Structure prediction request, 264 residues.
Amino acid sequence: MKTRINSLELAYDDHGIGQPLIFLHAFPLNRSMWEYQTRSLLAEQRFRLVTLDWRGFGESDIAADISTMEDFADDVAGLMAQLGMQQAILCGLSMGGYAAFAFLRKYSRRVSALILADTKPEADDAVTQASRAQVAQLVLSEGTSAIADQQIPRLLSAYTREQQPDVELRVRHMINGALAQGIAAAARGMAQRADATDLLATIDCPMLVIAGEHDSITPPSMARSWAEQIADAQIAVIPRAGHLSNLEQPEAFTTVIHNFLYSL
Ligand code: MLT
Prediction:
């Protein structure tokens, strides 16, 4: 489905009835990365499951040269308003987590619970900011397949790359489906994102932190250290997964979020 939010055509899916649960995708993928989780949870007939493509990804349009995490948060808030949702559980992975932190800063009362996977609250350091500028330059000069070649080794575990070539193909397909301008704009937006560590002590909704065992970008040790700063946060590590833990080990990831959701 498509709808106009904040002057852009954004694509989303909305299935089921029950407690609203919105999934926020990683960079530089799209909402189809949540297919396994939404299909499994839909069968339980307990949740209203929403996925959206960030501006410039999947089937969503883009107009600007930068997509800030606040832009993404405003798009989620706009979609919630259109769908008549006062509150929702947010489930964000990596850049989806950065957007969830921006949403939390602006719209904290609209979050009923949080699931944050393979992400972190810290802002980028200077080295990472410089590499984001290179990503933007690379995608605009050489296209999305150059980004797929560059990103896949950092996104997936060695186990996934050796044992599950279909997962790598899917990720490549999603990256190739993004707009070059969308990838460049999100890379610039991530580089500028605010540090969210000050928010950790203020989080008072139920919270689950997930990390892939072999995530080299946001490893389990990093997840533990920031999760410890949140009152009563649960933490789970997904064996054999890298950074894209929900795609690499979909069953294990879904079991973990299922158990969390049923504990609410
Ligand atoms: C993501 O998976 O969203 C990105 O790897 C995030 C990042 O590069 O920090």
Summary: The first helix runs from residue 35 to 42. The pocket of D-malate is lined by residues 26-27, 94-95, 190, 217, 243 (CB under 6 Å). The mean pLDDT is 98. Residues 172 and 227 are 31 Å apart (CA to CA).
